[in-house]
Amino acid sequence: MIKKILIANRGEIACRVIKTARKMGIKTVAVYSDADRNALHVEMADEAVHIGPAPSSQSYIVIEKILEAIRKTGADAVHPGYGFLSENAAFAEALEKEGVAFIGPPVGAIQAMGDKITSKKLAAEAGVSTVPGHMGLIADADEAVKISASIGYPVMIKASAGGGGKGMRIAWNDEEAREGFQSSKNEAKSSFGDDRIFIEKFVTEPRHIEIQVLGDKHGTTLYLGERECSIQRRNQKVIEEAPSPFLDEATRKAMGEQAVALAKAVGYHSAGTVEFIVDGKANKFYFLEMNTRLQVEHPVTELVTGIDLVEQMIRVAAGEKLSFGQSDVKLNGWAIESRLYAEDPYRNFLPSIGRLTRYRPPAEGKKDDGTIVRNDTGVFEGGEISMYYDPMIAKLCTWGKDRLTAIDAMGRALDDFEVEGIGHNLPFLSAVMGQERFRSGRLTTAYIAEEFRDGFTGVQPGEAMARRLAAIAALLNRTREARAVEISGTIGNHKRVVGKDWVVTLGGASFAVTLEGGSVRFEDGTSLVVGGQWQPGDSHAHFTIDGQRMGVKVSRSGTGFRLRHAGIDVIAHVREPHVAALAKLMPVKLPPDTSRMLLCPMPGVITSVLVAEGDTVEAGQALATVEAMKMENILRAEKRAVVKKVAVKAGQSLAVDELIMEFE
Amino acid sequence: MRAVLEQLESRRAEARLGGGTRRIEAQHGKGKLTARERIDVLLDEGSFEEYDMYVTHRCTDFGMEAQKVAGDGVVTGWGTINGRQVYVFSQDFTVLGGSLSETHAQKICKIMDMALKNGAPVIGLNDSGGARIQEGVASLAGYADVFKRNVDASGIIPQISVIMGPCAGGAVYSPAMTDFIFMVRDSSYMFVTGPDVVKTVTNEIVTAEELGGARTHTAKSSVADGAYENDIETLEMVRALFDFLPLNNREKPPVRPFHDDPARIEMRLDTLIPDSNTKPYDMKELIHALADEGDFFEIQEAFARNIITGFIRIEGQTVGVVANQPMVLAGCLDIDSSRKAARFVRFCDAFNIPILTLVDVPGFLPGTAQEYGGVIKHGAKLLFAYSQATVPMVTLITRKAYGGAYDVMASKHIGADINYAWPTAEIAVMGAKGATEILYRSELGDPEKIAARTAEYEERFANPFVAAERGFIDEVIMPHSSRKRIARAFASLRNKQVDTRWRKHDTIPL
């Protein structure tokens, strides 16, 4: 058996591998770059080896440095995680030479699947369904029409050299195919100087569904069900689940068997994933590619199958036989994974770097209601999200007996997850959990683009939710006011008496309420019974409203309360009725006109200008750095804008309020 | 009997109407509340005791005898904020533009005298067109009477001014001599001479907002300590500030129940200081981590942001915080930050508010602008203020404490009671690079040698232990236990007593 595993990775996946290794009684070695000196995986591992500067090109993906670390620590196996060297055949080969076990597939399989064209060919040969299309050159429009008709409409006409949507046409009939071919060809010629065109089936409602396979070195290869990863943003998966709400048993079996056939064809062992694109309308699936590694979203498979994939990978690498067969693989319940990214959804998902001033994930494990929460992470409170690596903070998974139970558990887990200090997509994830379309499982890979056409602006509370939040705010306020009058030095018997009648304003709405015990009575006579233990200073609390539990993040905003729940982010003011009446007289002010100029905030030297004239910058994007008093300060865009003029050069000294750049 | 009672009610009703419905509507139209409405927001409901409601002016020039309004443009009295007593005057713009007459001033003086005698703070809500010109010198005398009382009360009771409309000419000097000035954005302004006079005299064209609006006074002139969106928000924030302040200089600051463990461990603080000492970090994170419930009331947030001043509570009791901010100008001391902090330290000292100083200071800002501006004297103000303070003082050095700035920032030598340092502290005459360049000038041509010398210097001096070995640092503490250590430090200083020599007063370098 393997005695010591070196994990050639960082972040959550390194931590995740360490957990299983530890469970199996295997020692672990972490590697780390300059930027990861204080990282969690370094802390968790038995040993840690420094492998170079922060950029991964100088550390995590330098094979020789990993080999050195192996020699130094005497590790007898390497787990590559995902990304970095995980699908690098040369690395697997080097390990083989070194006599160290690679916890992954054989070199040949990595090579075969690493090439898009080879893999497609191999798949087709193995009887795997591939996207119907014509890869060869097409001579003229007539041939294009003929090919299109044989593939079946709609088809996609693509420039071979294409990219960014250029030279791409969708045709629904012969006529469109003819026109599309011509315009595609012209456009490709002018854009890329290469007018080669190919045609393939266009999938109108594509879903991304993938099959987890697992094989040993003794000829057994199994499929462990599927994962649906259709919720993506710019090809980056955001929410995954297992099983898929789309597949029926027969399709699942067909896909699974094809995936196994492909794996067998390349002599695969260890864990791997065969990705398919599924035509939601035609109910057909087509091979996309095979990932010869552990997938980011593997935890959802683990949650529904009960199989620890990392453990199986280690056992397979050690030469053990799989201890179960295909008939033992049962999909139990439903699991959802939300990827928590350091990307600010309010600023068009711009990466956000900085310090996690607060990081409190929800408690993991089995809950009273039978659901399970799992959180895979590589960060800690006070840690830094750096610019060098993937901006993923955590993978939050929930399991429930069925899909909606798992989704609701996810909603609650997100409400209980506190992350501060950087921008992150948690409110966005919460918003998706509440969307009817997501809940009903009508997914396609265009889901986010379709459901958030104008970007993400937060969830607006409906009437019922606004009342709940108002009731909570009234309760918070009573707690705060009751404490305020306990101050020392009050004037004897003339103390302030905290009243029962209050007016809560929240997101433009206003609610007159009367508080009696835990009951909040509204003007219309209805009331809500609120329970909960919040004390001033608590940043999160659970409330029960009419028996239903709500996790709410609470913070101070001036004299009001900022409440966050289920993607909603509102400020509530609670005032005595006479003050609330006067507050109505206050003018509504337009947000201040953020200047169209970036001025130097301090005397200093411009060390770099990071944008050029004509660039479109997003809010929060770094524009320039100024060094002052030997400190580097990053100046960021306040809003989305186009750079009109850059007035300075790197090295220039500036005084306070000198112009750095202008925006249109 | 009943007729007399009814007469009282009708006189009260008349007085409450101030300048009349039409003017009240005009005031509301400008987004402003009336004098009495403001008091209703500021004070606990039903707690206001009004005095001098029926006072009218005695002027007979310019037809003024026909323009008498009960109260004469200012509402005065006392009430409570969360049950604690406070005297209030609120100028009524609906009555003759809130202009200050002899009797208007007398009303203000009356409650100031009472406040001083009874040891309760004064809050002035200013909304006045200025002196009542019809009264001439009598009005000027009125201003001066108020000024004198502001000074007499200074350091004895806290005085807070809220500018909620115009405040121009001589009128500005009463708020200027109080402890805090707050302004309402877009509807208040303060200046000695208005835009018209400015134009006549200097040919400068400037709007009232640019000349003396909230932004000008919070960010540029530092006349104001804070500004808020509207009347309601401003008054609510004044209530919040009031809860931090003692009623007078004979009292300790107020204490209220708290819901935060004084021994709370904050592991995140162990990684607050970046690996590179040229990388900034946000000192406010530390302040929030140390404070009860993360509650911090910042004073002069928009001005001299390289130093942070404000109030927190520790174990329910008010503590004044002064902290260098590495995010701005590396947290250096300069003219503005020294003045800002000096004023704050003196306020805390006058009112028995313990001071917590958080130090990460690379030194004083160099440059001709600073020297010509008199950074020597301005820096001395902060040094003077700290040296003079006798309230409990706890200092924590998080990173840099270089040169003279180390001395200034509440060092042991000038009277701080307990001085802590984190292991990341570097207490030295200057940074390693600068020091080696002076000490080893002859080796400057050889970068390798200099690098070695720098490393050597860092090893020897870039730590808290050289100072700790001499007792200048009482203890080097773990960042994560800072709240506990600081809370215990202040607890140990609760009965601190210092006898000071008699003197008429000091001669602080103003």
UniProtKB/TrEMBL annotation, chain A:
Its EC number is 6.4.1.3. Coiled coil: none annotated. One of its GO terms (biological process) is lipid catabolic process. PROSITE patterns: ATP_GRASP, BC, BIOTIN, BIOTINYL_LIPOYL, CPSASE_1, CPSASE_2. Residues 1-453 form the Biotin carboxylation domain. It catalyses: propanoyl-CoA + hydrogencarbonate + ATP = (S)-methylmalonyl-CoA + ADP + phosphate + H(+). This is propionyl-CoA carboxylase. It comes from Gellertiella hungarica.
TrEMBL record, chain B:
It comes from Gellertiella hungarica. SUPFAM superfamilies: ClpP/crotonase. Residues 264-504 form the CoA carboxyltransferase C-terminal domain. Belongs to the AccD/PCCB family. Keywords: Ligase. InterPro entries: AccD/PCCB, AcCoA_carboxyl_beta, Acetyl_CoA_COase_Trfase_b_su, ClpP/crotonase-like_dom_sf, COA_CT_C, COA_CT_N. Residues 1-257 form the CoA carboxyltransferase N-terminal domain. One of its GO terms (biological process) is carbon fixation. One of its GO terms (cellular component) is acetyl-CoA carboxylase complex. Pfam families: Carboxyl_trans. GO terms for molecular function: acetyl-CoA carboxylase activity; propionyl-CoA carboxylase activity. This is Propionyl-CoA carboxylase beta chain.
